[in-house]
Amino acid sequence: MSSRIAEAKHLAILAMLALAPGPLWPAGPSLAGEPPALNPFAPIKTERDDAVPGYVEMSDGKIYVGNVYMTRDKRLKLYDEQIQRQREIPLRVVNQIECKVLKEWMEKEWRFKEMANDEKYYTGREYPSREYSHTITLADGRTISGPLSEVIYIQPYAYSPSDPLSYRPSQQPDRVILHKRDKGDIGADLKALTFVRLVKLGEDALAEGRKKQAAGRRSD
User: What are the tens digits of pLDDT across the range 187-203?
Assistant: First the structure.
């Protein structure tokens, strides 16, 4: 009889605890096995460890200054005309990349008269076209020339008179393309078809790029 009474009291206590508001135990530190809580306001490192300081100069005079890099683990792929084979060059061993215009012209726009018909007609409109060659100068002074097609990114630096080289990770990187051959919009002229004229890398190049960029601001 006494065991039944004790069991009934135990069940009553459990029922009261289940209906009680709030947690059964006071709040305390998280268990050792739980991961730490994420802080949404914590700084996020976005600087690329494979980036190289420097600048990019466009054919229209625009200058991009900052950390220069490519897609992760990618290398510059250039067909070496001297040895007649493709070379793969990491950006960190490059001193500069210089572009040379091989040929430029205004291309006529042609269209087919009818579907499934080989006959074409000239629309009267034109668009700019251009072919390029690039010369890569390595850090040891050697040069390699040939056609090159790559995407280059430039993460800008924030401009501040007190700290002119401060990094600005929150800003999206600029993106430029090195072309073997390129064409512009219909109706545009050759001047409108801008291209990467020069890429220079290293601390000295960074200082040079900042001077050019500052000179461009003063002339605007």
Answer: 999 999 999 999 999 99
Does this model's pTM top 0.90? My answer is no
Strands (DSSP E) found in 21-93: 52-58, 63-69, 76-80, 85-89
Q: Are 156 and 163 in contact (CB under 8 A)?
A: no
Arithmetic mean of pLDDT over the chain: 81
Strand pairing of 120-138 and 196-201? unpaired
- State how far the Cα of 83 lies from the Cα of 33, in Å rounded to an integer: 59
Angle in degrees, CA 178, 171, 183, rounded to 5:
25
Distance of alpha carbon 43 from alpha carbon 29, whole angstroms: 24
Among residues 80, 69, 50, the alpha carbon closest in space to that of 155 is found at 69
